[in-house]
Sequence to fold (393 residues):
Amino acid sequence: MATSVKNNFMPPSLISNLQQVLITRKNNSVEGHSNKIHEPTEAPSASSSSATSPCSGAEVSKTENDCLKPVVLVTNEEGIQSPGLTFLVEALVCDGRFDVHVCAPQSNGSMSGHSVTIRETLTACSVEISGATAYEVSGTPADCVSLALSGALFSWSKPVLVVSGVNRGSSCGNNMFYSGAVAGAREALICGVPSLCISLNWKKDMSCESDLKDAAIVCLPLIHAAIRDIVRGTFPKSFLLNIQIPSCPLMNKGFKVTKQSLWRSSLSWHAVSANRHPSAGHFMSNQQSLGIKLAQLSRDASAAGAARRLNIHRKNVEIESVGVAGKFSSQETVKKYFRLELGEKDQENADEDLDYKALEDGFVAITPLSSNPANCIEIQSSVSNWLAVALAK
Fold:
């Protein structure tokens, strides 16, 4: 083969050497190919075969079985360390039918609603949970589900089912608008994935952690039925199931499809003193992740300088009283501290088909929540028919 070199600036001797190397390599390649044709092919030995295999036959079989199992994504609102999530994941893993993945908030996101984090950087850190693939995320429950379903975190495209729970506290009625647990399940619904939200009707000074474990066990038949019918294509669509477990899970009177009520926990605001409650002034900042704090510092740097110049001559005045604080001069900055507490609120003469009433009566209340409330009657009928058939199988 002649090699032509045009318009180059390399020395002629170097060009000659390069041409000789190319010719030599070509001849060696032809000879090697000829030898391969005439050499007999040796059968691979057992030792060489096992050396090239990355895992044993049992491990390969286990991996293949995991690939065949339906993927279930678990999240919650109280954080990845909460006992309710731990008990639910343990129950699903021990059941052996599912490939369990977890994506949950790093810290408690209760009452966060359907808030999502924008213009901030979230972190997702792997967490060791036996039998499951798990990540904790420095965001809200809705963030966790959105990230998990985006394809950026896990290798699969979409799970068969998303389960948010087991969460501590009722999300009946209008409480579901505040609930981060319901928001996680609703985010899955928005993304086109069937979802369940499981909550225990936690009673102060009465409930204990073992009730959360019992709640997970009570819900397993529903999870089995849902996944089976999702695979078959017979599971009702366009809504999520908000499942409320009574305070004594193992003493429940059965499953009951209910309507969403207008019930809500009583909200009580209390004025507190920063002197008597040192954490009051920093309550919100302590709930925020380090990433959010750093982003806020960066974003507010210029504004902080201006505010500092404006307030340098002002005097801070702490107010503890409730109501009118009086008039203050422009040289004084008024700062107040408040805490919100949730209380129980009874609802008399409630319809027995409402979620709150059924839950208080000892039933497992199953309330379909749709993004289109106009179809609520049709959806409730659809869920009732599905539940009657699903649990009878």
